[in-house]
Amino acid sequence: MFRNAVSNINAHVKLGLTATLLREDGKIDDLNFLVGPKLYEANWMDLTEQGYIAPVQCAEVRCPMPAEFYNAYLSEQVHNQALLGITNPNKIRACQYLVNYHARRGDKIIVFVDDIFALTLYAKVLKAPYIHGGTSHTTRMQILEEFQKNPAQHTIILSKIGDTSIDLPAATCLIQVSSHFGSRRQETQRLGRILRASARDQEGFNAYFYTLVSEYTQEVRFSAKRRQFLADQGYSFKTIIELEGMDDLELVLASAESQASLLRRVKQKLSESGAVEVPLPSKQRRVKEPVERHPLFKRRQRTDK
Asked: Each residue of 199-244: pLDDT tens digit?
């Protein structure tokens, strides 16, 4: 649609503005002839020092998977493994720990969960309202307004529909539970949800950006790719192996029984989804089908000398 609009509308001048000059399909280079070359790019660290955007502390929190969950993860097809990584009990516990910690500090927290089944699960654990594609416009506006104005409503949970077109200057902390594979653009857009924090002018203020990653899963590789663009902009990521004091708190899914119950629910959800098995590439030699040749360009016969 964008390509058609730019190509079909006559104009003397075309000016493009974006905060995320990124596409994972490589088509970003098409802007050179659709709009024109890049004329200026602001440095994000300079914008932070000048007070236009908030300073952010970024961290990746590694969450080990219980043995039963990890064994189930290894036995599933690749397209089913994602849900097991998202519903990792230790990831849910880490999310609850961080929400409780930042709520006590008076922060406003956004939790991103892309999968709808997992989103409702996290919403129940955190006792927080949520918004996804099926949420009505009226309900969305009520939840967002409550988050902005009510000090007691410190957390909301969003699916990927919250990546763009939502202005939440009250938000000061973001926890990313799951994401769209290794998309650098999505990572940057989500960081933008807390860059406009209204408290950014306060001395010593910092916003916080957490990515929760299940250890020894494909999430680790995706996370490394996603933060490349932010690293190029000058952001540094701290890797947290263990959240101090988490085991001493009363958090959900502490017992083996509760974790086993959750695993059964996740497996049932995977079976109900009716996912079709993706065949792996065959190592057998492919049989070539005969190709009809043009009568005027017959293959030249080799002759032995």
From this structure: 888 888 999 999 999 999 999 999 999 998 899 899 999 999 999 9
Three-state DSSP at 40 gives coil
Position 20 confidence tier, pLDDT thresholds 50, 70, 90: confident
Cα separation of 14 and 259, whole Å?
56
- For 216, other C-beta atoms within 10 Å of its C-beta total 14
Phi (first) and psi of residue 272, to 5 degrees: -75, -25
Tokens (6 digits) for 213: 């990653």
DSSP secondary structure letters along 208-233 = EEEEEEETTSHHHHHHHHHTHHHHHT
Q: Strands 155-158 and 130-131, how do they pair?
A: parallel
Tell me how far the alpha carbon of residue 164 is from its chain's centroid. Answer: 12
Alpha helices in the chain (DSSP H): 2-8, 31-34, 44-49, 67-75, 78-86, 89-104, 116-126, 137-149, 184-195, 218-226, 228-232, 256-273
Report the C-alpha dihedral over residues 224, 226, 229, 233, rounded to 10 degrees.
Answer: -70
Coil, strand or helix at 264 = helix
If 0-12 CB within 10 Å is exposed, 13-18 middle and 19+ buried, where does residue 300 land? exposed
Distances (CA, A) of 92 to 6, 88, 268: 45, 6, 19
From residue 15, alpha-carbon distances to 12, 37, 131, 197 in Å are: 10, 10, 34, 28
Phi, psi torsion values for 72, nearest 5 degrees: -65, -40
